[in-house]
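notes to self, project folder thing:

trying the whole complex as one job this time. last attempt i did each chain seperately and stitching them together was a nightmare. two parts in total, labels are on each line so i dont mix them up again. if this works i'll redo the older ones the same way
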Amino acid sequence: MNRNDLMKFFLEEAEEQLQTLEQEILQMEQHGESDEVIQRIFRAAHTLKGSSAAMGFEPMKTLTHQMENVLDHIRSGQMQVTNPIINILFVCLDRLIQFKAQIELEGTCSGDISDIVHKLQQLIEAEMSAQQTPAEPANLAFLPEEHAALEEAKSNGYKGFILELCFSSTCEMKAARSLIIRSRLEGCTHVIGMKPAFHEIEDEYEGPVIIQYLIACQKPIKEIEATWREITQGESIDTINVLDEFGAPAVPPAISPAESADTFIEPPLSASPDPTSPKAVPVKPEKEDHRRAASSQSVRVDVERLENLMNLVGELVIDQTRIVQVGTVIRDLINADDTMDEFDSITNHISRVVSELQESVMKTRMLPIEQLFNRFPRMVRDLSQSIGKQIHLVIEGKETELDRTVIEEIGDPLIHLIRNSVDHGIEDVEIRKANGKPEAGTIRINAVHQENQVILTIEDDGAGINPQRIKQSAIAKQLITESQAEQMSEQEIIHLIFAPGFSTAKQISDISGRGVGMDIVRSHIEKLNGIIDVDTRLNEGTTFTIKLPLTLAILRGLLIKIHQSIYALPISSVSEIIRLPRQDIHSIKGQMAVKIREQVLPLVWIHDYFHVPRPAARHDDNVFVVIVGVAEKRLALVVDELVGNQEIVVKSMGSYVGKVDGISGATILGDGGVALILDVTGIFNLVGKERSAHTEEMIV
Amino acid sequence: MTTDKLKVSTIEQLVTFEVEHEEFAIPIEDVYQIIFVPKLMTVPNSPEMIKGVINLRNEIIPVLDARAAFGFSSIPHARQHRIIIIQSEFITAGLIVDRVIQVLQTAPAKFDHVPSATSSQQNQYLEKVYKTDERIIMLLNVNKMLNDQNMNFIRKHNYSTD
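result (full assembly):
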């Protein structure tokens, strides 16, 4: 591994550990200290210390070392977790994040950390002088309930045993190992208890550690002994013992029954991994990474490689459709024979393999949305503190998976929406009290899968959006005229918040209210082929709902022809295809419409918007109409011809062409030609624009 | 000015082409490929300068009309028309020209500034002029052409959503 690879690895690891730190510190702040949380924080800091030391990032190492010191004191019970401690831990975290960013940019890390280090040391000193008495050593007896469980087992004919082992002083990760052994034990017998408990085992303690497991078992002592030996094989263990339930050696030829369980005993039967010199020669930990390997069988892969893989699969999908197409042409040219049949079966097979490959690669790109959601608690905490609101953040559906590019793109809009909820949504404490609401506002973020989409919701129990204020503000900003406003429904008015240049914030605050915002959120989401909707009730709260496709790269498309050119419509937005006589197209107040199963739908000749001629009347005077939909809206599109449906690989037209109204991208067809992908939301907008221009003319 | 000189000294070969009987050129290192004109997919509602998009080795690239870029009126497709695939730092695009003439070896001394008399529409993408005894060849600044148009379009787009 060269330095570059090392650096990459370091940065990836650091990112992970920093995230863990942030989550766990937040956890500690909200739910108070618990041994597991402190252990996790400690471990993250420890890992960072190790890797930064290895890379030679001195300030990072020193800082994590000092954090470790403080955490160690907390862990051993010498210090209590207080607000100042949490705050300084956050300060440390921020500094570490800065260091990481600096390393990423410059490859080195420098900076003065003496201020933080000083504060950390002060904390320790203050605490130490406050309580001189060191914590009691961990209670080494089994818990009463464990004894009770044993008594119950005994009444069922089980016998109690204590299995004892002693980790050698050189053994690493004693706590984790003790757990591994416990789980192995659980595989063959009933484990009642373990002492010292997992969180009481100190990884850093440099000396032999004795662990005892209390088990209930019906097997003969010989068998237990053999199993115990087998289980502990290969670990860095000095000695093992089988004792009876009272801690006395259970095997008859025991050395001295007088010795207590807490003392180190080595009966002749006990097997040591290295009998010649059990203490002097440490047994190499063969299963160093056992814990990690057991928890998940995974490999770190560079994102770029995945991206590349996806592109290659995309090419394959294109070529596969082309092979099928060429096959059809060849079939027409030559008479069917065996070779041709074979060709067909090969094409079929390739198609199957390619689609499976595509699915698999797609899955590798899926990530749980957790890593994005995990950024929010800290953000909300900082924001709410800075403006003095109390906010309770609930996050649900963390495990929901979606394409990593979608996750990347959706981050900013979500942050914006949450900031908005904190700033505009949740009211000040006094107002909330006056309205009989709980003092702390609740923001609920949720992600859930629904068919081929992911639904994200951001819900707050705040003031809601006041349509009157929106209306006034929109008129004041000349986004709409007063007469227009009169004709708009409440829902339409609320939707004005997505209009460019709209913001109702009374003053520009640090958090939001720069007059951009919701329109950027909307355009971001539309770029992802997603939809955003808002539902709001005065004094009850606001819910933003975002619907996103699972993946952006490949989708099923309906190919249609409009004036000699082929376009693709994402099948997900097509609700129905019908053929109807031209005379069924009616005109209602200048707007063309069709009636389908008692429902009147606006009808659009997309030709007009694309400035191409409408098709000449067919001999049977029918037209093909594709009903497309976004959310609850439906629209009937007239097309010249239906070409077929196939997997299409979405390609961008590049920044040069940029965003074109009604077009979301392009794809390559079986014959090598290009088809543009119609953007249904965009078409709705095009049509809407046209119509509002119409009404404006009429009003004027 | 100093960068100007430097650039000149590095130009050794030019791809020259004809638009409306005038000769233009692009430094060969900005040219990726020259292809026949395939079937173009027109992009509705796009600026006039964008003729459409094509599939070049499974990538979608825009094709610009040199005639529109230089302010000439468009003409129907002819057999000798070609698309020069040009590359700027970030963008690959095609440029439809009336005909490709040759690859020209240059002598540094024959470069000159663009005469101020040329129309401003042409002027904005021209970098300098290469003069031989019987020819005057105008050099295109590919970066400027691709990025500038890009900016224009973004501006236009922002405006249109307002």
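what i see at first glance: Chain A touches chain B at residues 314-315, 318, 500-501, 519, 523, 565, 609-612, 651-663, 666, 668, 672-676 (CB under 8 Å).
need to look closer tmrw
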